[in-house]
Amino acid sequence: MAIFGNKSGEGDGNKNGEAAGFGALSPEKAKAFFDRARTVHDTTNYEYAMTMWLSGLRLQPNSLPALEGYWKSAVAFENEHGNKLSKDTRKGFSGKGEIEGFLAAMLDWGVEPVDPAHPVKAAEHAAKIHAAGAPMGEVGDWILARATRLVEQEKKPRARKHMYVKLMEAAATIGLFEYAVRCGDAASKLDPADIELATRTRNMAAQATMSSGGYDRTGQEGGFRSNIRDADTQRRLEETERIGKSEDTKERVLADWEKEYQAKPGDVPTVNQYVKALLERGRPEDERQAYSVLNRAFETMHQFHFRQKAGEIRLRQARRKLEDYRAAASASPDDETAQRNAQIAGRKYLEMELQEYRLRVENYPTDVSLKFELGKREFELGNNEQAIALFQESQQDPRNRTVSMTYLGQAFSRMGWVDEAIDTFRKACEWHQDMNDATGMELRYALLCALQAKAGTDRSLEAAQEAEKLASSIAIQQISYRDIRDRRDSLKKLVSELRQGA
Questions:
Q1: How many CA atoms lie within 13 A of 306 on its CB side?
Q2: Cα radius of gyration rounded to whole Å, the chain
Q3: Could you give the CA distance from residue 335 to residue 338 in angstroms, rounded to a whole number?
Q4: Which residues touch 388 (CB under 8 Å, ≥6 apart)?
Q5: What's the CA gap between 170 and 105, in Å, rounded?
Q6: Are 426 and 404 in contact (CB under 8 A)?
Q7: Which are the contacts of 168, defined by CB distance < 8 A and separation ≥ 6?
Q8: Residues 6+ apart with CB under 8 A from 40
Q9: How many angstroms separate the Cα of 164 from the Cα of each of 107, 108, 167, 401?
Q10: CB contact set of 248 (below 8 Å; sequence gap of 6+)
Q11: How far apart are CA 333 and CA 454, in angstroms?
């Protein structure tokens, strides 16, 4: 299926290509635009760099390094200018055809990185380009990994389901059936009454199994059945997906996937299944091998999800060591060395988590849920300014808004920015719906502490009175809450003193 030829329209592939908006793709010509984009990016002219990346992608839409380069320029531009693109830039990517639609969607996404509608459109156009003859597997994987995270944050269930269905269809067209199943499941949970959708999702799951086993890549007619050539292959397929596996079954599955991996070390589904089989058997040497395989895949295929999985294995190993240190400290509470070792191990583990989440945020810069997780680690390690910047972004996510604002206020308090802490806690109280639940109680307590600090420092009667009222409301609800009795008493005394002084 020729798609890199001229516009002669010879062959079905070229006709499909013309319909998608490409008839003369050229990786060689695209390279000139990509080289120019890198040079321009280094001069900090990010908008022009974006246009160079997209102009190159017009000639080679399935270049993952170029897409990643474009995103780096777009993030830099958005950080400096927001979504204020020039009219000429937008006009340059407003043509017809699937490639032009893909470029326009990427341009919109680049300057509005948290709007899920843009990556959904990009995925749809990428699927149509793929169907017309230009393989978009790597680019599709990159888009879908980010699009699914953004769609999770859509507030309206109906819109969220609609987007999941679109992503499911795009992923299926590209052949990324794991994403298709994930999106189909998410959409079905939002609308359990949609029987047709549930059926389609089950069919996707079956196709994902076939794809992961390599049974849909022979190019022969007849589908799945014609590709299963013997009972041994059928057995492997069934045993791989079986939830409760015996030890013998785990051994057989691992041996099968190890052989498959040795034959096709650059095949993404094979790498994923081999790593899954290693971790299911779960010996120490299996974890080490899985870590090595994932790092090798990341180095050769440059797909970050391999590096993320490797990081998860590393954290799992470190967490077990931390648990050993804590168990030793718990068993010997008077042993200063054991207590100190547990503290050191705990901090080292936090620092390791911090580095992992920094990498994830760097690779998924629009995922505010990751920024929330990174913010927690920065906060726990005392990096208040870094934590504040992250929580200011993660509070835009409705799921983490209240807790983000709580952390934000606490970080301001640590820095001595009492007024900012008070304003933040007040906004969190306004946002939170039930001030009598555990979170509401925590917010009121945090606000009263900040007001008490202001009253003590600024000798503010108004702040002291507001803090006293909050302390009384908490004491009425739960008199044993933290140190609320002592705070109530000290605030009453402070209010009396300030009144006398006034």
A1: 26
A2: 28
A3: 5
A4: 408, 411, 412
A5: 15
A6: no
A7: 179, 180, 183, 184, 187, 200, 201, 204
A8: 48, 49, 52
A9: 21, 19, 5, 23
A10: none
A11: 38
Kindly give, in sequence order, each residue whose CB lies less than 8 Å from that of residue 285, ignoring residues fewer than 6 positions away: none
What token pair was written down for 384? 């208040």
pLDDT value at residue 79: 78
Name the pTM for this structure: 0.58
Residue 118: phi and psi, rounded to 5, are -70, -50
Mean pLDDT (10-residue bins), the chain, 502 residues: 33 42 74 92 91 94 92 86 83 89 94 92 94 89 92 89 94 88 89 86 69 45 41 50 65 90 88 91 94 94 90 95 95 95 96 95 85 96 96 86 94 96 95 88 95 94 95 94 95 93 73
Give the pLDDT confidence score for residue 66 in this predicted structure.
92
**What are the tokens at 427?**
């906004």
Helix, coil or strand: residue 113: coil
Q: Which residues contact 367 (CB under 8 A, 6 or more apart)?
A: 146, 149, 150, 360, 361
| Encoded amino acid at 132, one letter | A
CA–CA distances in Å: residue 361 to residues 111, 301, 426, 478: 17, 20, 29, 40
The per-residue pLDDT for 432 is 87
Cβ within 8 Å of residue 3, ≥6 positions away: 13, 14, 16, 17, 22, 25, 132, 133, 134
pLDDT for the residue 239 = 52
Contacts of 86 (CB under 8 A, 6+ apart): 47
* pLDDT number for residue 10: 33
Q: Which two tokens stand for residue 87?
A: 């009219």
Spatial separation of the C-alpha atoms in residues 264 and 213, rounded to whole Å: 12
- Distant-in-sequence, close-in-space partners of 210: CB < 8 Å, separation ≥ 6: 216, 224, 227, 237
Q: How many Å apart are CA 264 and CA 273, to the nearest integer?
A: 12
Give the per-residue pLDDT at 154: 86
User: What tokens appear for 38 in the block?
Assistant: 């890198």
**What's the pLDDT at 270?**
86
> What is the Cα–Cα distance from 57 to 70, expressed in whole angstroms?
9
Diameter over CA atoms, the chain: 95
Q: What are phi and psi of 236, to 5 degrees?
A: -65, -45
Count the helix, strand and coil residues of the chain and give each as a percent rounded to the nearest 5: 75, 0, 25
* Helix segments in 332-417, DSSP class H: 336-363, 368-380, 384-394, 401-414
- Return the amino acid letter for 393: E
The values of phi and psi at residue 395, to 5°, are: -70, -10
Give me the pLDDT at residue 208, please. Answer: 63
Q: How far is CA 186 from each of CA 40, 99, 201, 240, rounded to the nearest angstrom?
A: 41, 28, 10, 23
